Amino acid sequence: MPSAGSNPSGSSRLPRRPPGEDGDLGEPVVSGSGGGAVRGSGGDATDATRDVRIRSDEPSLGALLRRRIEEALTAAEALAAGRPIVALDAGCGERTAFRSVRGRIGRLVGLDVHPPSGSGLDVDTFVLADLCAGPPPLAEASIDLAASVFTVEHFPDPAAALRNLGRCLVPGGRLVIVTVNRRHPFVAAYFALPGPIRRRLQRLVKARAADAHPLVGACNTPGAIRESLVAAGFSLEALDSVSHLATAWGRHPLTRLLGRIGDRLAAPLPGRRSTLVVLARRTPGDGGDRTSSETSELRPTDRGGGT
Q1: Residue 197 CB contacts under 8 Å (≥ 6 apart), including other chains
Q2: Are 217 and 144 in contact (CB under 8 A)?
Q3: Alpha-carbon span 160 to 133, nearest angstrom
Q4: CA gap 229, 175 in Å, rounded
Q5: C-alpha neighbours within 13 Å on the C-beta side of residue 290
Q6: 90 backbone dihedrals φ, ψ, rounded to 5°
Q7: Residue 16 — φ and ψ, nearest 5°?
Q8: Residue 231 belongs to some domain of the structure
Q9: What CATH number has the domain bearing residue 108?
Q10: How far apart are CA 91 and CA 27, in angstroms?
């Protein structure tokens, strides 16, 4: 199923508008997937919501995430040239985003601000750290690819977190991000609630009470996340949107119904769908193209068979 962020040959480069169209300079566009070009929801071009692409068979979040993880891993394997792959799940929680490709990863590092409560997290090394505070928690250029799934909306300083992720990645390494989209009217209303009310409501609507972490939303529109990634030394390869409220708010029948309504309303408007899926590449910077085998020092809290 080719998307606007990829083609059947496997390239995940975003399409670019022709220079001068609608007064822009050929900026990347949000994609829902392949299909005819249509108007989005309006708004500024900086929020990447104009000339978006949609299709009737919108993919699920799980399917699109697996696709982006696969693309990031394939790129990492090409760069590694036979060396074991080191992957980072930043904000791993209790389950890693790399489950579907676990057998192709030589060393999987999980990182979170909270230690796992159980023994079901399948990582080789667990690092207790805050990406928003202090220096990078891992050695520079020690990671081949990284994923951050539903964590960006919780970052009090997303610029610092993205810089730290960029420093941990090898030049050319990919970062996959999944986060909420504040351009969805229900998500925007959710963030606009007073803090105490939002915290109580969050525990009600989340699929699991354990997922109810403090929300910030400082980098949660297509334009904001694109600009933050570029400032942190990344180039954007794909920016997609999917509908996911019914699942995210699926703990109770009433909230699940509300999520379904929100998903249905936003489905034709890719710039306003509830969830963003991003694939970005770390651009080469100062320090040279060192591989993770040359800079493999970690500062971990080991779990299980950790190294």
Answers
A1: none
A2: no
A3: 7
A4: 10
A5: 18
A6: -90, 105
A7: -120, 140
A8: yes
A9: 3.40.50.150
A10: 30
Nearest C-alpha neighbor of 21 from the set 51, 54, 53: 51
Q: Which residue has the higher pLDDT, 118 or 23?
A: 118
Cα atoms in the 13 Å half-sphere on the side-chain side of 237: 23
Output the 3-class SS for 162-224: HHHHHHHEEEEEEEEEEEECCCCHHHHHHHHCCHHHHHHHHHHHCCCHHHCCCCCCCCCCHHH
Instruction: Tell me the pLDDT tens digit for each residue of 63-96.
Output: 999 999 999 999 999 999 999 999 999 998 888 9
Q: Is the pLDDT of residue 18 over 60?
A: no
Residues 1 and 54 sit within 8 Å (Cβ to Cβ)? no
CA distance 76 to 33: 24
Coil, helix or strand for 16? strand
C-alpha–C-alpha distance, residues 71 and 87, integer Å: 13
The answer to whether 244 and 61 have CB atoms below 8 angstroms apart is: yes
Length of the chain: 307
Cα(71)–Cα(148) distance, rounded to whole angstroms?
Answer: 15
List beta partners, residue 28. Answer: 16
pLDDT exceeds 60 at position 293: no
Q: Which residue in 141, 165, 172, 150 sits closest to 290, CA to CA?
A: 141
Structure-token pair, residue 260: 């379904």
Please, which residues have CB within 8 angstroms of residue 125's CB and are 6 or more apart in sequence? 107, 108, 109, 110, 298, 300, 301, 302, 303, 306, 307
Number of compact structural domains in the chain: 1
Contact between residue 138 and residue 88 where contact means Cβ atoms under 8 Å apart: yes
Residue 93: strand, helix, or coil:
coil
Tell me whether residue 215 is in a domain. Answer: no
Is there a domain that residue 199 lies in?
no
Range of the domain at 101: 65-178+221-243+274-302
